Amino acid sequence: MAFRSRYWILLASTMLVAAPAHADAAHEAELEDRLKALEGAVGDLRSELAASRAQAQAATTASTEKVAALEASWAKQAKPEDGFRVGGTTVKINGYFKTNASISDYSGGVLGVRTAGRDFYVPGSIPVGGVDEGRDYEANAKQTRIWLTTSTPIGKHMLKGHLEFDFQTSPGSEGNQRTTNGYNLAMRRAFITYDNLTLGQEWSNFQYTPALPESTDYVGPSEGTVFVRQMQLRYTKKLSKTVALSAAVENAETATITQADATMTENADDRMPDFTARLLFTPAFGEFSLSGVVRQLSYHGTVASADATGWGLSFAGKLPFGPDKRHDLRFMITHGEGIGRYVGLNFSPDAIRTGANTLETPELTAGFAALRLGWTSQLRSTLMGSVQKVSYPAGLAPPNANKSAWSLAGNLFYSPVKPLDFGIEYRHGERELVSGAKGQLDRLEFAAKYSF
């Protein structure tokens, strides 16, 4: 309305200006006053126009910023979140689907139905002393794995949990290959961490899992590696940017044989936990682990009891090299007495129960080396060799006890996209008994894995 009023004032003033030149002199002063009023009205009009333009520009800028904010919000909402929230806890679910198919040839006999050695390489299960049965085909998806992790901030600290399952290791009733092929869910790992403290079932502190090579097999170089998951209480201390020390008390179990029979027995007679320690060194050029274990072995019979001491040292590492560090060399070497259940999937016993009611500890040396070659970002190979040798106290080992095992393997993996792997692997393994009898395994295996 103010704008229109000033418009009419301007129009009227203009008409007055156009009045005849012979107007009365009395009106000249009035005309000058009206001209000044006109100039003022024009100035006010210009100010209002400028203010209006400024308001329009501000509205346009605000609208643009709002649209940009909405687009950013939509983009953020469209991006997948890493986990989900339950109260103050972040929960994540990960894992992989894995299928395996293998063709095996056992030179020394037939492997029992539902034996773990049919699904993956268990050196202690290679048949010895029988007749070559020819080719044996197996296929399953038991190694499919799921894990759930949680993290809850508590002040400046972080409480975390890890729960992991697969279908490979569950004992007891299982499905069969004739109809449904259903298999039981088995707990692999279940632990909590609070800052430097770990409590629960986790890989043994005596084992260094990053050294394990990529394989279509469940383990790979089985006879040469430490491989144990068990209940423990572990404390880890960072000594420097590249050095960390961890110590743990772990669940104990003594596995024994007798002088007459190499059948492994779990005694459940242990009085003390196993004690482990590991020094981890991670310089820029690689990573190295030196670990040790000390344990008390126990057996309590109806007539007599016996104890013995077991100990072991293990050195492992990984050395990347080549363009973009696509290649690496991985290794592990382990030596000790009375540590059979820790190495090679319990290829050697922890102790021998003698007729004199004592426990005698065999000595073992085991190791593996694996060379990984990254041909391209999608294609890679691993060549690996593994061995374990067991030395028994003179005259105490039964003829059917395991004396040594070794294997060689090579594979080729292809990943068309990051979460998907296809692999093919050939393995030759050999097992020898104290008696000198031997059995061999040749296996060609295929695997496909989708990780999420």
Describe the protein.
- With 452 residues, this protein is an alpha+beta fold.
- It has two domains: 2-78; 97-140 and 196-451, Beta Barrel (Porin), CATH 2.40.160.10.
- The protein has three helices and 22 strands.
- A 16-stranded antiparallel β-barrel has the order 2-4-5-6-7-8-9-12-13-14-15-18-19-20-21-22.
- A hairpin with a 5-residue loop joins strand 20 (402-414) and strand 21.
- The model is unreliable at 7-12 and 15-21 (pLDDT under 50).
Topology:
Layout: H1 2-17, H2 26-78, E1 84-86, E2 89-106, H3 116-119, E3 135-140, E4 145-154, E5 157-166, E6 186-194, E7 197-203, E8 229-238, E9 243-250, E10 255-258, E11 265-266, E12 274-281, E13 287-300, E14 305-321, E15 327-337, E16 351-353, E17 359-360, E18 363-374, E19 379-391, E20 402-414, E21 420-433, E22 438-451
Helix pairs in contact: 1-2
Output the CATH topology of the largest domain.
Porin
**Spatial shape:** elongated
Q: Number of DSSP strands?
A: 22
DSSP strand (E) fraction?
over 45%
Biggest sheet statistics: 16 strands, antiparallel, barrel
**What's the name of the CATH homologous superfamily of the largest domain?**
Porin
Kindly name the structural category. alpha+beta
In the CATH hierarchy, the architecture of the largest domain is Beta Barrel
Number of helices: 3
Task: Give the averaged pLDDT, no decimals.
Answer: 89
CATH class of the largest domain: Mainly Beta
Radius of gyration: 39 Å
Number of spatially distinct domains = 2
Topology order in helix (H) and strand (E) letters: HHEEHEEEEEEEEEEEEEEEEEEEE
**Going across the major beta sheet, what is the strand order?**
2-4-5-6-7-8-9-12-13-14-15-18-19-20-21-22
Low-pLDDT regions: 7-12, 15-21
Could you give the distance between the termini?
Answer: 67 Å
Estimate the helix proportion, in percent.
10-25%
